[in-house]
Write a structure and sequence with these properties.
Number of helices: 3
Low-confidence stretches: none
Strand content: 5-15%
Order of helices and strands: EEEHHH
Structural class: alpha+beta
Largest sheet: 3 strands, antiparallel
Length: 93
């Protein structure tokens, strides 16, 4: 089974996104606050410095501790992988 491209390495306290590693708090409360702040800042992405890229990053952090977010992230991952693998009409590969 291939290693997941993104995960929360709890032993080292880092969010792994492919080759990029971002430090995150080791406490559950700290991760929830960080994830919520990222999502909130992402909704203000039209402002300078903040960006819409913060929303998916915040959801990944929140999905580690909140089962409802984890289920939705998993459904989105399955949907996206099926969409990428589905043959497209009028296109031959």
């Amino acid at each position: 089974m291939p290693e997941r491209r993104y995960r929360l390495d709890q032993q080292r306290g880092r969010l792994v996104l492919g080759k990029l590693e971002i430090p995150v708090p080791r406490s559950k409360a700290g991760r929830i606050v960080t994830g919520t702040a990222l999502v909130g800042g992402g909704f203000l992405g039209f402002l300078p410095i903040l960006g819409f890229w913060m929303v998916p990053l915040g959801l990944i952090v929140l999905s580690h501790d909140l089962p409802a977010v984890r289920r939705r992230r998993r459904r989105m991952t399955v949907w996206w992988s099926r969409r990428k693998q589905a043959p497209r009409p009028g296109r031959e590969d």
